[in-house]
Amino acid sequence: MKKIIGILVLLITISAFAEEPASKITGAFGFKLGERLPDDARTHKCGNMLEYHFTPKKLFRKMDEYHVYIVPGTRQIYRILATGKIKEKLVAVQEFNTICSLIGKKYKLKPETSAKREDYKLKLYQSGHQAISVILSTVSKNINGKKIYIVTIFYSDDMLYHSANEKTIKKITGINYCKIR
Fold it and tell me: What distances in angstroms separate CA 158 from CA 12, 85, 141, one per listed residue?
């Protein structure tokens, strides 16, 4: 009996110091992944995707463009995107690092993937089939001949994303992608 109590005390002590589990990625900027976009929301076609532009009630940091992408037919949101254009490299790098830090703390996640080139940085945070990508990229030159730095945040649901692509392929080709696999 004493051994069992000792083991239980040990397990409780270990679990008290264990890291908290990651929070589920549900959405951002007033939208939830998987939520149905209302029929009266005016979407437009962007390539093969349906896109909805919006302005959230509360703007996030230096982000100035907001979009959601939806699955054709069901109108379920599979991607939420925010983008900010920044003129100074140091400010853009600081913004990228701050956003990555905030996401890591909020969701209790570490980036699973990081990529870095001279003109591009990426950090990917994943929890199940939902993910958040934070990207810092450089647009060569704007109209004035100066570089512009773009910070982008993607919240995405991989399962809904694949569903959106399958429905788009079927709509364009008439082929049921699900039955081919």
Answer: 36, 26, 33
CA distances from 118 to 114, 140, 144 (A): 14, 12, 22
3-state secondary structure 139-173: ECCCCCCCCEEEEEEEEEEHHHHHHHHHHHHHHHH
Could you give the count of Cα atoms lying within 13 Å of 153 in the half-sphere of its Cβ? 25
What are the extents of the domains in the chain? 23-180
Separation CA 31–CA 77 (nearest Å): 8
Do residues 149 and 89 touch, judged by C-beta distance below 8 A?
A: yes
Phi and psi at residue 97, in whole multiples of 5°?
-65, -40
| Spatial CB neighbours of 77, under 8 Å, sequence gap ≥ 6 | 27, 31, 32, 33, 34, 35, 36, 37, 68, 69, 70, 157, 160
70, 78 Cβ separation under 8 angstroms: yes
- Could you tell me the pTM of the whole model? 0.76
Reduced to 3 states, what is the DSSP secondary structure of residue 24? coil
pLDDT in tens, 103-118: 999 999 999 888 888 7
